């Protein structure tokens, strides 16, 4: 059997500028004397990201969760919001903090995104919006979701934490829906250490967001909205400017890693890569596989544990299902029998090591390891 890796291999490693570039940026901020509240770095990063993402109405935040929370608030939503159980806790917690009730909709077994064909049956008089997630960089069925929203006059919000820079049929991903949230957490492709943004369609909503993230303060004399403190500071924005310079190269490295994983894993029965290139440009955020226990011979949990013995730290992601959180269990839509595809996916997904600095050779070794683990354990169980 292959030797374990000498040093642990994790699923990601933050994209960082070199220490000298970071230090120069910090000096520049220090000399300016302004370290937060819409300073020079904040303005520059906003402009650069509006251009990069082709998102003309962009507002920066200190993290993606608060961006989403205030985005929902800015749209003035009420009652119920149809969403997916297969997501990171932040998606549904942003609903909780707005006093909105999630209505969980099952997912598509291929993309693992909300199943658009199941949304309509969940709409009631109390429904005000659809909150969908572009999971692992696979875009949702934006056409169908848009049609349903138009028919029932619902708002559409996309949690786009995984789709930085993604395009669908040549259109930037934030073209779809009323707003799209991006996360700039250290684990995301583009990061500002912690941070996030909202891209919105309406200029009025943008103005409202810029007030909401700064306590609703309009001017020194007037506070016009009940907001929060969710501003991105100058150090976050300045580091973001440096990281943005590295994003294109990171994407092309990840493209190579993805192709190599796909090539190697195609030989292993029972392993299916989830993240597929849809449309023109992927976000290259995660590389996630699904382990079919029947076909592979062993469960996802088994593979996760075995790889750990060889110093390869994969992650069960997303896990657990949001509909299984204690405070949602009494909801009709959260019942496991109503969410069969999501219940299956949550037991099968495994996020693999995936970041530009990961050598191509390591991908070969990891795939070889999976193959050997499968074969030798199968031989053992036959004895
Ligand atoms: C990372 C992530 C978030 C949260 O973003 P933060 O910037 O960490 O607050 C929300 N939704 C999804 C799907 C994520 O992956």
Descriptive account of the structure:
With 383 residues, the protein is of the alpha/beta class. The longest helix has 23 residues. It has twelve helices and 14 strands. The structure holds pyridoxal-5'-phosphate.
CATH architecture of the largest domain: 3-Layer(aba) Sandwich
The total tally of domains equals 2
Cα-based radius of gyration, to the nearest Å: 22 Å
N-to-C SSE series? HHEHEHEEHEEEEEHEEHHEEHHHEH
Quickly name the level 1 CATH class of the largest domain.
Answer: Alpha Beta
Mean pLDDT: 95
**Oligomeric nature of the chains:** single chain
How many helical elements?
A: 12
- Derived from helix and strand composition plus strand pairing, the structural class reads alpha/beta
CATH superfamily of the largest domain: Type I PLP-dependent aspartate aminotransferase-like (Major domain)
Q: Can you count the beta strands?
A: 14
**Straight-line N-to-C gap:** 18 Å
What percentage of residues falls in helices of 4 or more residues?
Answer: 25-40%
Bound molecules: pyridoxal-5'-phosphate
In terms of per-residue confidence, which ranges show pLDDT below 50 for 5 or more consecutive residues?
Answer: none
Shape: globular
CATH fold naming of the largest domain: Aspartate Aminotransferase, domain 2
Main-sheet strand order equals 1-9-8-5-4-2-3
């Amino acid at each position: 059997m292959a030797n374990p890796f000498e040093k642990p291999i994790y699923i990601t490693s933050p994209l960082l500028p070199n220490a000298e570039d970071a230090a120069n940026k910090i000096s520049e901020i220090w000399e300016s004397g302004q370290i937060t509240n819409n300073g020079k770095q904040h303005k520059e990063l906003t402009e650069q990201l509006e251009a990069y993402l082709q998102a003309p109405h962009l507002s920066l935040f200190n993290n993606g969760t608060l961006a989403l929370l205030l985005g929902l608030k800015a749209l003035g939503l009420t009652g119920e919001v149809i969403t997916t159980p297969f997501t990171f806790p932040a998606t549904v917690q942003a609903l909780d903090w707005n006093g909105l009730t999630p209505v969980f909709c099952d997912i598509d077994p291929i993309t693992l995104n909300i199943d658009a064909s199941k949304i309509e049956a969940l709409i009631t008089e109390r429904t005000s919006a659809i909150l969908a997630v572009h999971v692992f960089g696979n875009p949702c069925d934006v056409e169908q979701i848009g049609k349903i929203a138009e028919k029932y006059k619902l708002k559409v919000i996309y949690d786009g934490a995984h789709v930085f820079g993604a395009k669908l049929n040549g259109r930037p991903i934030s073209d779809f829906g009323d707003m799209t949230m991006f996360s700039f957490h250290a684990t995301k492709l583009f990061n500002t250490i912690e941070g996030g943004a909202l891209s919105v369609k309406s200029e009025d909503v943008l103005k409202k967001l810029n007030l909401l993230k700064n306590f609703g303060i309009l001017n020194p004399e007037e506070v016009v909205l009940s907001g929060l403190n969710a501003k991105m500071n100058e150090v976050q924005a300045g580091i973001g400017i440096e990281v943005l310079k590295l994003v294109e190269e990171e994407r092309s490295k990840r493209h190579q890693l993805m192709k190599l994983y796909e090539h190697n894993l195609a030989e292993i029965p029972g392993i299916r890569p989830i993240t597929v290139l849809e449309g023109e440009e992927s976000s290259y955020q995660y590389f996630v596989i699904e382990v079919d226990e029947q076909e592979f011979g062993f469960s996802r949990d088994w593979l996760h544990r075995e790889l750990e013995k060889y110093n390869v730290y994969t992650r069960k992601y997303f896990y657990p299902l949001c509909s299984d959180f204690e405070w949602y269990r009494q909801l009709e839509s959260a019942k496991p029998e109503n969410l069969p595809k999501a219940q299956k996916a949550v037991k099968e997904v495994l996020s693999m090591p995936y970041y530009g600095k990961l050598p191509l050779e390591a991908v070969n070794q990891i795939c070889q390891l999976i193959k050997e683990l499968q074969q030798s354990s199968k031989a053992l169980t036959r004895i």
